[in-house]
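Hello forum,

I keep getting stuck at the same step: I have a sequence, I want structure tokens, and every attempt I make locally crashes halfway through. Rather than fight my setup again tonight, could one of you with a working pipeline run this one for me? It's a single chain of 259 residues.
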Amino acid sequence: MENNDLLITFEGPILSLKLNRPTALNAFSPAMIEGLIASLEEARNNEHIRVVLLSGAGRSFSAGGDVKGMGESSPGQVYEHVGKLNQLIKLMKEVEKPIIAVVHGFAAGAGFNLALACDLIIAAEDSKFVLSFSQVGLISDGGGSFFLPRLIGIHRAKELLFSAEPLEAAKAYEWGIVNRLYPLEELQTAAMEYAKKLANGPSRAYGLLKKIADQSLVSGLEDILEQERITQAMMVTTEDHEEGVRAFKEKRKPAFKGR
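Reply #2:
Ran it on my machine without issues. Output:
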């Protein structure tokens, strides 16, 4: 699974994916995107993987598209590249396990949108987020046009898209883009501790919570109510529900197994 542009490690049930083009600020490459797709397919199908951590090597999370190569691709090549990126973003939403972006330095362009496609964002206090597409006469790709307005409202989203001005981490936290902020030196440890906490939780319930919450962005209330009804009827038969009830009655911490 591993390639030079993506470092893949496991810590128990936690799959850690680190973008690894530090000299290019982890700008996307075909090998990196293919590696992410293959790794997330593994996460989707491997019941032992309960949480995915996504981070960047070097000075930043990701600069997104490789600006040095821009202007050299044909429309057809761009169409194919964005198609692969779309495949990755859709897969991130299909994997019924929490995916956590761990952001430091810059999350720029499609790198910002990659973080937005995750379920949670944990960031360093001095990190910055920027939709830099308009600076080179492009539109946002990688799902940012979908995710960002739903997080912060259409007017704020348009301002970020138009201006390409960096958004400080504190403001991103205030606006609900970032879930948690830590000093840079504490970021990786804090992210791993949080991932371990999720990994010890009812991972099957987490996956279905993710699925329904994401579906609520494009569905009406009636559809979501019915999904909740069907899913809850199924969840009461799971081992994790039985364990949770036992633990509550016995006044102890539950030992969930993801089943």
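The first helix runs from residue 30 to 45. If your local run keeps crashing, start a new thread with the error log.
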